[in-house]
Amino acid sequence: SQQGEEDPQALSIQEGENATMNCSYKTSINNLQWYRQNSGRGLVHLILIRSNEREKHSGRLRVTLDTSKKSSSLLITASRAADTASYFCATVNILNDMRFGAGTRLTVKP
Amino acid sequence: NAGVMQNPRHLVRRRGQEARLRCSPMKGHSHVYWYRQLPEEGLKFMVYLQKENIIDESGMPKERFSAEFPKEGPSILRIQQVVRGDSAAYFCASSPLQDRARYQETQYFGPGTRLLVL
N or C, fewer C-beta in 10 Å, chain B? Predict the structure, then answer.
């Protein structure tokens, strides 16, 4: 079963705008990860945030984690057409079980 | 509608043995992806298959690893002559025939197979 639930399911924005995707989960986690999938390709790991971390940055990506609300967000700033892809969150619990959400499909229009 | 199934869930092998990991995609799905996850790390893409075709194997080690997705039956990830460094969780995901007009990209993941090489 998919534990992480991303919202929105689909997001369409203009180039240069920021994109925010959210992920909620139900059980305690060890870490949470975000992935990107381009059309016809496998997942690419973007960023991992541990349960004792609240925020992480990587280039134009910013991830936050609120364990009290069991939610995470992925922010892509100054989006580009090349950011068009599906984005997945995955939770890893203390037993190292990994569960994925269904993903958010992001479209960035030039 | 059963989800993606992987078996076995746990597999223990001694160095030099072969490991066979199976993945049954969701009903109606014709695309399968295999990933490897080392402890405390993210998933690493290995291979992408359609029925009877390997589409992208850019993430597969050049030796000892092979994958297939036959016309009938599950997808198999095969690791020959396993070494301790092969110990990891192996996940497969499936997706339906991609409808580019509707930009369907959802992947559905199985629970993974944890391989331990002694």
Answer: N
